[in-house]
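Hello Y.,

Per our agreement to keep a running log of every chain we model this quarter, I'm adding this entry. I've kept the format consistent with earlier entries: sequence first, then predicted structure.
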Amino acid sequence: MSTDAELDLSPASRTIVVKVGTSTLTDEEGRLDREFLPVLANQLCDLTDQGHHLVLVTSGAVRAGAELLGWSARPKKIALKQAAASVGQGRLMAAYAEAFGARGRLVGQILLTRQLAQDRGRYLNAQNTLQALLKNGVTPIVNENDTVAVEELQFGDNDTLGALVAALVGADLLLLLTNVDGLLDDTGAVIPVVPYLDRHVRELAGGAGEHGSGGMATKVQAAEIAGAAGIPTVIARGRRENVVRDAAEGDDLGTRFTPSTQPLKGRKHWLAYGIQPRGALQVNEFAYRAVAFERRSLLPAGVTSVTGQFVAGECVSVLGPDGAEFARGLVTCDAREAELVKGKRTDDSPTRGARGARSELVNRDDLVLLPSA
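Predicted structure for the entry above:
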């Protein structure tokens, strides 16, 4: 197969990211269900045979490792999680390689960390790797690198990872497979379509699942991240027969989240969701309106408080007068200097000479308004 084959961009070809959680991959006793993996692989292979491009984001390494180590419960300490992931990742990939190999398909392992997403260059390198695998007929299998990720640099759940991967590959659909039929309303009925995310929808989402790190709340957050990139999300029961094929064909199942009609693309989406803020700048009403409605840079005069420890070039949250985050951006100075210049006009800034012409704290080209705000 040619190594420079182009990705098929015809209307009939779609890119679909499927995320499968630990609760779906394990049996009733919490062990990795090796009979289910071929069922899942066959559905992805069927779609690949039809010309679609599939990316699988999988959980289960920690659970598989705990099983091999003889642990009855998922470990809670991060060192034990890393040990279990180290043992279980190889076994999990071997099981996937066997399942896809039975259909003549190759798989490629990609382990990502939040630290990678922090750096734009490395983020784009991951994008290039994913595209290269898809161009050459290989199914990427993505997981968080739990063996080395420290707590502050973890994605925290593979729902978020799945949404970021969907944005990376420009997916047409993000499918989150779980152990429930979808997002449930107050009566316990599945909500078929969520046209937009509001407070009530977020309140309907629950906590973490029994065997995994994510829950419905993280899936709703993932739908927000994907939706901001213009990608619809479907949450559905992973053990439903033909769930991947049916979701890809647009069948009425689970809960479908409608994407934004004004999506963030490329660097703006990365600024909004790819980076973890290292601190926050709270602003007054005048600065809030200038940034949110007039798309201006954030100047020191409009900042009322500075929190966190950050250096120039790192991401910070921008909070409105009410304390709610409404934007994110790359700051031009460290936290110490931001504290010195907050509330001051440029002419009055004690560091004006050192800052030179760079009077803004966050330039408008490095600012993004959050769709959720």
